[in-house]
Design brief:
This protein is an alpha/beta fold and 314 residues long. The chain is 38% helix and 15% strand. Strand 4, helix 2 and strand 5 form a beta-alpha-beta unit. Helix 3 crosses helix 4 and helix 7 packs across helix 8. The longest helix is centred in the N-terminal third of the chain and has 15 residues. The structure holds NADP nicotinamide-adenine-dinucleotide phosphate (NAP). The site of NADP nicotinamide-adenine-dinucleotide phosphate has 27 residues, from strand 10 and helix 9.
Length: 314
């Protein structure tokens, strides 16, 4: 457990000496282009130095422009921020990986990426249609490529100095193990949904044992209501320690040794979500004893993105 009281600058080493990831990450899953720009800039101004993007989010250009403007205005160097983007499911064929990577880099306006992730382990029919479906509306998967084939193409991006580290997202422990065993360059990061209702303890233990950074998305339960932000245990701790429920949830995530991605959409929320201090051990224990279990995003089962609409969660 981390003892420091100020968690804002927490950094987690990536394996094999390829640098460190700021634990507090800003996620760019925002559909509105104008809001993408203001929220990204607000996050940078609030102190976030870790930005999570994806070709699937369709807004790499807006994120890139906001970052360029923010870096210039704040006198912040490129090396002071950590930028990730992700390979989409329709680009799993090895020959599509480098062009997809180059396209993301171009849209973001960057010369290199700190981290490139395979967005999900599910290969869709290769092509420029990100959501290929048959006449019944069922997803067209690509049986002609394995996850290891795609992983090897990512390894060659690292070999050619195009990105610092590579990893996986939306993967289960049973699918991660064989890739970990076969990989020449081991995954540096695994990005999955995680919060007190989905602690993913077994996966976290595996990651800690292997030196893989566990990066939690939806640490606030995606802001779904009713949900984690109204949980009575979280609310009571927040009142006791003089923090907001969001700050309690983010501190818990950092103190259990994970990095996280949160998506505040206003300057005030960006400042709130960055202002994280450590919780006492008894508060951490109380959160760890929460019994509710709920997955909010079924992408891990299908490769199809999206949170489960309110009221239909399992
Ligand atoms: N790998 C994957 O498949 C995958 C899937 C999903 C997400 N992600 C990544 O993870 C990132 C974070 O996921 P997420 O958006 O679910 O994170 P989150 O931070 O748990 O949820 C964001 C929601 O919480 C609300 N919120 C933020 N700060 C708040 C605060 N201080 N108080 C109250 N409500 C607050 C926001 O509401 P308002 O809109 O009202 O501000 C927003 O709707 C994404 O942007 C993306 O980068 C990855």
């Amino acid at each position: 457990m981390i003892k420091s009281s100020d968690l804002r600058m927490t950094r987690i080493p990536l394996g094999h000496g390829v640098g460190q990831m700021p634990a507090l990450g800003f996620g760019t899953l925002i559909s509105d282009p104008a809001l993408t720009k203001t929220a990204t800039r607000d996050a940078l101004d609030a102190g976030f130095r870790h930005f999570d993007c994806a070709e699937r989010y369709g807004n790499e250009r807006e994120v890139g422009r906001a970052l360029q403007a923010g870096l210039a205005a704040g006198g912040i160097a490129r090396e002071d921020i950590f930028v990730t983007t992700k390979l989409w499911n329709s680009n799993h064929r090895p020959e599509r990986v480098e062009p997809a990577f180059a396209g993301s880099l171009d849209r973001l306006g960057l010369k290199y990426l700190d981290l490139y992730l395979i967005h999900t382990p599910f290969a869709f029919q290769p092509g420029d249609n990100q959501d290929p479906r048959d006449q019944n509306g069922d997803v067209l998967y690509d049986r002609g490529v394995t996850l290891l084939d795609t992983w090897k193409a990512l390894e060659s991006l690292v070999d050619h100095g195009k990105c610092g580290a590579i990893g996986l997202s939306d993967i289960t422990l049973s699918d991660l193990r064989p890739i970990y065993e076969s990989a020449r360059i081991k995954p540096a990061v695994v990005q999955v949904e995680s919060h007190p209702y989905l602690p993913e303890t077994e996966l976290l233990e595996f990651c800690k044992e292997k030196g893989i950074v566990f990066l939690a998305f939806a640490p606030l339960g995606h802001g779904m209501k009713p949900g984690l932000l109204e949980d009575p245990v979280i609310s009571a701790i927040a009142a006791r320690v003089g923090k907001t429920p969001a700050q309690v949830l983010l501190a818990w995530a950092v103190q259990r040794g994970t990095a996280l991605l949160t998506t505040p959409r206003s300057a005030a929320r960006a400042r709130e979500n960055f202002d994280i201090t450590s919780l006492p051990e008894d508060a951490l224990d109380e959160i760890n004893r929460i019994q509710t279990r709920r997955r909010l995003n079924p992408v891990v089962n299908t490769g199809v993105p999206g949170f489960i609409p309110k009221g239909r969660g399992v």
